[in-house]
Amino acid sequence: MPPRPTPHLRDAFASALVPGLGQLLQGRRRAALISAAPLLLAALILLLGVASNGLVAFAASFANPGRLALLTLLLILMIPWRALVVLDAARTTRQRTSISLLLVLAMLISAAPHAGAALITSRASSTVDDIFSGFESAEPGDTGGPTPPPPPLGDRFTMLLVGADAMGARTSFNTDSMIIASWDRVGGWVSTISIPRDIVNVPLGNGDVWEPKINSLWPAAQRNKELFPDGPATALREALGAMFGIQIDATAVIAIPTFRTLINDIGGVDVHVSRTIIDASYRTGDFKGVRLPKGYWHLDGDCALAYARVRKAPGTDDFNRGSRQQELLFAIRNQMAASGNILTNGLALLSALGDGVRTDLNQGLLPALAEGAEGFDTKKIVSAQMRAGDGILRYRRADEPSPYGSVVFFNAKRALQLGARLFPAAGTRPYGWPVAKGEPELGKESLPAPTPPAASASPSAAASPTPTPTASALPVGPYQRLISCNANLPAPIYTPEPDPTAPPSEDPLASPGESAAPSESLPPSESPSASPSPTVSPSP
């Protein structure tokens, strides 16, 4: 048997880079295998997990309670193991001072990846606890007890996404951005609709009606525990569900400052600005007006936030900004799926998410939902955008008193028809709103029987047009980065805006013999001859 080579300090550095490599260079194969065993076992578990569940679903499974904490502990325990492996590879090296310092350096090199990974997983564990703490916890991360087992994930999963200007226990913020997003797990369709914030007289799902603007329901539910014992998220979710005749399964809230930080941390988003937007009245932070040129742009957090919020530029209002918010929702999803910035800015991203995102979604559903989000087909995204005068919504008329200022009424019957049109039985093609050319009219859809996933993916089942550009319309190469959208314009002279009312008239889109009668879209408390009634009133 040939003599073993004399160990050198290089062996210690070799084992610092790859556990057991120094021992292998010394000819100590058994010691090399023992040194590398924990790393090989971890790699085997990782490969098996990815092979059986997919990368996204496997990663999402660590969001379950305790798994990230356990992973953090294992990473910390691997640090002394790596140090022992380095010491074993250098155990016969002469211990001079200079060599000892280099040996310490080798040990630090071996421990650094595990310490860094433990830091990230620890922060991720804290972030997950914060995000999934719900809306009734006194402090972020306080879940109030063990997480219940996940409910069965049905053929359709629907979520309410809310944008607010605050987070935590504050009761002063309004939900100015509301999007219902629904995933048909059978047919692969994704349906989205934006809810205008000024809609009034929304049913609460228990026989009562919420008379003020819908964006005030959340803070009111926080202040009135007796009227809303299940909390604000449930109150808003059930109200919008009753409006469209659907079940909404969970709610997620993102604070507006977090929205900007999130987009910056993922490296920006790609959007298609269909027409130039110039609004001199936009005064957020250092902005003196905003200018977003027409074209395909890569936007940072500030410009993306302006794109989502601007409503006073020519051609923009409270209604059509909902379609821009839906576009940004999918742009964020696409960027998070493709951007390497998620890794480089991992800690900053986790910090932002933990500070400004909350949900009552059961954590056990996350792997299946994450896997579904990864495989969304952009051709099967169907969106709806309501606006006053479309036959579903209307401004209040000049002769209709309202204690809530500029408000929007909805036609209850047509809202339910829109719900059936946009969120049909799983496996059935949905239709967007407004009606696109060649599509059936509202309430006259001839919906086919649900089809299996393979059939629904055929070209004949293509979705109706959405804000997402088609492949032929996309620019060649990466989107051009918009350096700045600060318009640097003088502040406009303030002039009071009149309430957007229409002259008294019958609904021009009503069917013969059907009108927007108070019994359908306006409770008796809002009729011209009635006096104001309580905030929550029984349904007529």
List keywords for this structure.
three-stranded antiparallel β-sheet, Nucleotidyltransferase, domain 5, 17 helices, alpha+beta
The largest sheet, given as strand count, sense and whether it forms a barrel, is: 6 strands, mixed
Calculate Rg over CA atoms.
Answer: 29 Å
Number of helices: 17
Helix-residue proportion: 25-40%
**Main sheet: strand order:** 11-6-1-2-3-12
Q: Helix- and strand-based class? A: alpha+beta
Low-confidence stretches: 453-472, 504-534
**CATH topology call of the domain at 177-262 and 346-466 and 490-526:** Nucleotidyltransferase, domain 5
If classified by CATH, what would the architecture of the domain at 177-262 and 346-466 and 490-526 be? 2-Layer Sandwich
Approximate shape: elongated
End-to-end distance: 97 Å
According to DSSP, the number of beta strands is 16
Strand content: 5-15%
**Would you tell me the overall average pLDDT?**
78
CATH class membership of the domain at 177-262 and 346-466 and 490-526: Alpha Beta
